[in-house]
Write a structure and sequence with these properties.
The protein is an alpha/beta fold. The protein has a single domain, classed as Rossmann fold (3-Layer(aba) Sandwich), CATH 3.40.50.150. Helices cover about 25% and strands about 25% of the residues. The chain is built from 6 helices and 8 strands, in the order ααβαβαββαβαβββ. The N terminus is likely disordered. This is Methyltransferase. Pfam families: Methyltransf_25. InterPro entries: Methyltransf_25 (IPR041698), SAM-dependent_MTases_sf (IPR029063).
């Protein structure tokens, strides 16, 4: 396991919020892959062919998606602003025998972004109460997709009862079409998914609720 802790090491509002958040969360919460993301990746992303195919997981939390991708053979850069979350991702990778394919990397994505191009870029529920240039970050995520690669975004389109935003009546969510438009992709991209399916979600206390997700998946064209 390699871990980049040289960036975003100073305390920011985002880092402080998410450190406090993870301090109060069961370390086992979020260690399974997001089912919506897993379905999209399984259907749309080619399986790694032993060529060191690279994946980037933005806002990885406890690493459920990153560890799942690594188990399929992806070489995964797992990014979060929380050092606590990344330590747990690293421990999970070690325990699963995936340390050589999971690379925790600390970034406040409003300020720094991982270098390089990736065959798969994912962001599951990239929402935060801290003000950040969210659309700018997601456009940067699209820029990081290699030719022929895939960007998959899974986002809240409704509030679950256990959400840290539950009770805020002024919360609104963009439509999947609005999210797609905000990426400003231009030519050279093909839309694979842009919809808002419902599903039954399970909260940290085992409670369930019907929620809606925005799912956006776009593929960058191969270069001639």
């Amino acid at each position: 396991m390699s871990s980049d802790t040289t960036r975003a090491t100073d305390t920011t509002d985002s880092a402080a919020f998410w450190e406090n958040h993870y301090a109060g969360v069961d370390p086992q919460w979020g260690t399974r892959p997001n089912a919506v993301l897993a379905e999209a990746v399984t259907a749309l992303a080619p399986e790694p062919g032993g060529r060191g195919d690279r994946a980037l997981d933005l806002g990885c939390g406890h690493g459920g998606d990153a560890l799942w991708l690594a188990s399929l053979g992806w070489d995964v850069t797992a990014v979060d602003v929380s050092a606590t979350a990344l330590e747990r991702v690293g421990a999970g990778a070690d325990a699963a025998g995936l340390a050589d394919r999971v690379h925790p990397s600390r970034h406040d994505l409003a300020r720094t972004f991982p270098d390089g191009a990736f065959d798969l870029v994912t962001a599951s529920y990239f929402h935060t109460p801290v003000e950040i240039p969210r659309e700018q970050v997601l456009r940067r995520a699209a820029e990081a997709v290699a030719p022929g690669g895939l960007l998959v975004l899974v986002e809240h389109a409704s509030l679950a009862p256990w959400s840290w935003r539950d009770g805020h009546e002024d919360v609104t969510f963009p439509s999947p079409d609005e999210v797609l438009a905000s990426l400003r992709l231009g030519d050279g991209w093909r839309t694979e998914r842009c919809h808002a399916p419902e599903r039954t979600a399970t909260g940290p206390g085992g409670e369930t609720a019907t929620v809606t997700d925005n799912v956006i998946a776009v593929r960058r064209a191969h270069q001639d």
